[in-house]
Design goal:
This protein is an alpha/beta fold. The protein has 16 helices and 16 strands. The strands form four sheets. It has an eight-stranded mixed beta sheet, sandwiched between helices. Strands 12-13-16-15 form a four-stranded antiparallel beta sheet, with no helix packed on it. The N and C termini lie far apart (84 Å). It binds pyridoxal-5'-phosphate. Pyridoxal-5'-phosphate binds at residues 134, 198-200, 224, 268, 273, 301, 303, 331, 333, 338, 343.
């Protein structure tokens, strides 16, 4: 006999009380699988409740898998799978993920793990000046202005931006970006712009669009370190084009293009990551010329286009692109905020539409609330003001870094290239016996971290004599202290 005790007026609906008590009896094995529950009418009469209350409780028990009922018959207790809880869950999955995943994804996982096991921004002790990460100085993020824009968007266009957005990105923002690109003499319409989740997604989409396993692609060596594992993931055949003092080696590239079928060329013409090199107009014209001749798409990564604060601006390659050869990538990450995860691709409409189709099936749309807020932020003029402020601050910070290198670095130990903007300085240890992979172990003791050269090289060159420093998160005092600590570390390494 099923003994249930119901409390009226205790705030818990009666059907809930019935459900919970039967559930508990089943879980405690008081009633076992196969046990026949009383009919809804019988139980309702016994408990003095409405029949529909019992019916609702049985429905709930059925939905949770505790009972089964056959049409026109009674309900029976069934053997239900135990819930997976903290206590019942196995400590290790029965799926051997490391073996079951694709080899390419295992490879990318191991690469990330290897880097993580070194130093992440979070694991760096507070006394260490971290000259490694290329992210923004938290003290400069325009939190308050952005909050106002978020509020306005939600207040005035809440129902629009909380819905799935337009698949190519928020229309007004695309128009704004197309107009802003005009300032850099790039002529595109809003239809030729695709909003992405950061420029990293832009790169991923372009690789998916233009390559298949085994495709040959040309990249500068050294290059942006976070695309290297991706190239492996896509099983691409990477042709490394050496970086010279004035940009990628065009003669070398030309020879490659004469011999090989190349699917695309990835280049960073401004403040190249990691070398800081900015190519000149002639270099850009030559590069475009040979790519036009060989009909090879150029992926121009303009990640820091807005961060030119010394000297005259050189126009992007895309500004001369009459034939629709250049796929330009931009981002708000390196001047406004990396956390908003908004970038864009500007390219020929046929290309954009194909990229948009891939994006559509991978993430449906980008975050419309944030795109709305960015549009608001830009159209109020905040973005222009913010860029001006960033230029003022980073022109000073970069001068401080160069001055400190000149002042503290003993002659002949290290050489470097002075960038025309951005945040990066690429340095070379003149003593070839030193290995920059060993720099951070000693650096950590002296309160400094850098990015070792080998992180950035593709192909056979190891680049162990190079390293990159980045000033994007540090103020002038920190930059100077970091460089003093770096000098101390290099001198110590030489002696050891
Ligand atoms: C050269 C370059 N391209 C693209 C990116 C990706 O940036 P995001 O996805 O934040 O726009 C970075 C990030 O550091 C970068 O250095």
């Amino acid at each position: 006999m099923l003994l249930l005790k119901l409390k009226h007026n205790n705030g818990i609906p009666l059907y809930n009380q019935i459900t919970d008590q039967i559930k508990e009896m089943i879980e405690r094995d008081v009633i076992k699988p196969g046990y026949k529950l009383p009919s809804t009418r019988t139980l309702a009469d016994r408990l003095g409740v409405n029949r529909s209350t019992v019916y609702e409780a049985y429905q709930e028990l059925w939905a949770l898998g505790y009972i089964e009922s056959r049409p026109g018959s009674y309900s029976f207790v069934r053997k239900r799978q135990e819930l997976a809880t903290g206590n019942t869950r196995k400590t290790k999955s029965i799926i051997p993920w490391n073996k079951q995943v694709s080899p390419a994804s295992e490879n990318i996982y191991r690469t990330l793990h290897l880097i993580r096991s070194e130093y992440t921004a979070e694991s760096v002790p507070p006394n260490v000046i971290n000259l490694s990460p290329l992210t923004m100085d938290k003290r400069l993020l325009p939190v308050e202005d952005f909050r106002k824009c978020m509020n306005k968007v939600l207040r005035e266009s809440g129902t629009k931006v909380l819905d799935y957005g337009e698949s190519n990105g928020y229309g007004k923002l695309r128009t704004y970006i197309a107009n802003r690109l005009q300032l850099h003499s790039i002529s595109v319409t809003a239809d030729e712009v695709l909003i992405t989740n950061g420029s990293q997604q832009g790169i991923d989409l372009i690789l998916r669009l233009l390559t298949e396993p085994g495709s040959k692609i040309a990249v500068e060596s050294p290059t942006y370190s976070l695309i290297i594992p991706l190239l492996k993931y896509f099983k691409l055949d990477v042709v490394s084009i050496p970086m010279l003092a004035d940009g990628l080696d065009i003669d070398y590239l030309e020879k490659v293009l004469r011999k090989e079928k190349i699917s695309l060329i990835y280049t960073i013409p401004n403040f190249q990551n990691p070398t800081g090199v900015t190519t000149d107009q002639v270099h850009r014209e030559r590069l475009l010329g040979i790519c036009e001749k060989h009909r090879v798409p150029i992926v121009e990564d303009g990640f820091e286009e807005e961060m030119k604060y010394f000297g005259n601006a050189v126009l992007p390659i895309k500004s001369m692109d009459k034939g629709g050869v250049v796929i330009y990538i931009g981002t708000f990450s390196k001047v406004l905020s990396p956390g908003i995860r908004i970038g864009w691709i500007a390219a020929d409409k046929d290309c954009i539409e194909r990229l948009a189709a891939i994006k559509r099936y991978s993430d449906l749309t980008s975050n419309a609330v944030v795109q709305g807020a960015i549009y608001e932020y830009c159209s109020r003029g905040y973005y222009d003001l913010h860029i001006k402020r960033m230029h003022r601050i980073f022109a000073r910070r970069m001068k401080t870094a160069i001055k400190a290198l000149r002042k503290y670095m003993p002659a002949g130990k290290v050489s470097w290239v002075e960038p025309a903007g951005g945040y990066l300085i690429w340095l070379k240890l003149e003593n070839h016996k030193l290995d920059t992979l060993k720099l951070n172990k000693a650096g950590l003791r002296n309160g400094v971290l850098v990015s070792p050269g080998p992180y950035f090289f593709t192909g056979n060159k190891r680049g162990h004599e190079y390293f990159r420093i980045c000033i994007s998160t540090l103020n002038e005092e920190e930059i100077e202290r970091g460089i003093r600590n770096l000098v101390k570390t290099i001198i110590q390494l030489e002696k050891s």
